[in-house]
Amino acid sequence: MTTRYKLSLLGLALVGALIGGCSSNAAVTPALRETPSYIHSSQTVYKQIELLSRPAVKEAFEMFKDHNRTNRSEPYDDRVLAHQIKSFTLAFRSKDNADTLQAVLYPNVMKVDLSQNTTTAAYLGVETGGATGSKYGGRALSDDIIDISLGAIFGNTLSALGLIPDDHKEAPCLTTDNIAYDKSNTTTFPYIQAPL
Questions:
Q1: Residue of 144, 128, 148 whose CA lies nearest to 179
Q2: Is the alpha carbon torsion for 93, 149, 7, 28 positive or negative?
Q3: Which of 4, 26, 42, 151 could form a disulfide with 157 if both were Cys (CB 3.0 to 4.6 A apart)?
Q4: C-alpha separations of 84 from 35, 58, 60 in Å
């Protein structure tokens, strides 16, 4: 079997796990009742039921059986996700890719640098030193988060940004979800079009 064929099989398995595993609400719903409460200074009680700052990261790297546990963990104390980012990536990419992905994608939080120009957001901007468009970070409405994440995992995004040398082990067929976004936002809340 060729490397490309093996990567295609890996990609198909990943897609199958995402579609099959993430569509089952039956396994998730009872666990939501177990979610810990967090009391803030205002004495308001919050329940964390999902930890998903970066769409596609947990889905790509984490085994579905671990989602409930990590959903209830603190973003900076999710050793499962940190480990799985690296171990998954090492299966088909270089150590540089695995180390850099782990450093960029963990912890699973949306970072912003408030000292930067706040009118220009860019997904992973803080983590990449502005290589994705601005150093502000955050997430612009026009950012294609899924394609950016898949490009970093399976494509040459990290090397194209100058973060690491190219390992020439890309799997181009896995770098996009093939869903276009026409970016015709509005000037009023919620700023985006209604779902199609």
A1: 144
A2: positive
A3: 151
A4: 23, 9, 10
Would you state the structure tokens that stand for residue 148, as one six-digit string? 């950016």
Q: What digits encode the pLDDT tens for the residues 34-72?
A: 444 555 566 777 777 787 788 888 889 988 888 888 888
> pLDDT per residue over 76-125, tens digit each?
888 889 999 999 999 999 999 999 999 999 998 899 999 997 778 999 99
State pTM to two decimals: 0.71
- The SS3 assignment for 57 reads helix
Token output for 70: 């990590």
- Closest residue by Cα to residue 58 from 70, 72, 73, 46: 70
Residue 44 within any structural domain of the chain: no
| Residue 75 belongs to some domain of the structure | yes
Specify whether the CB–CB gap between 112 and 126 falls below 8 A: yes
Q: Strands of the chain (E only): list them.
A: 37-39, 45-47
C-beta atoms surrounding 60 within 10 Å: 24
Domain that holds residue 121: 53-181
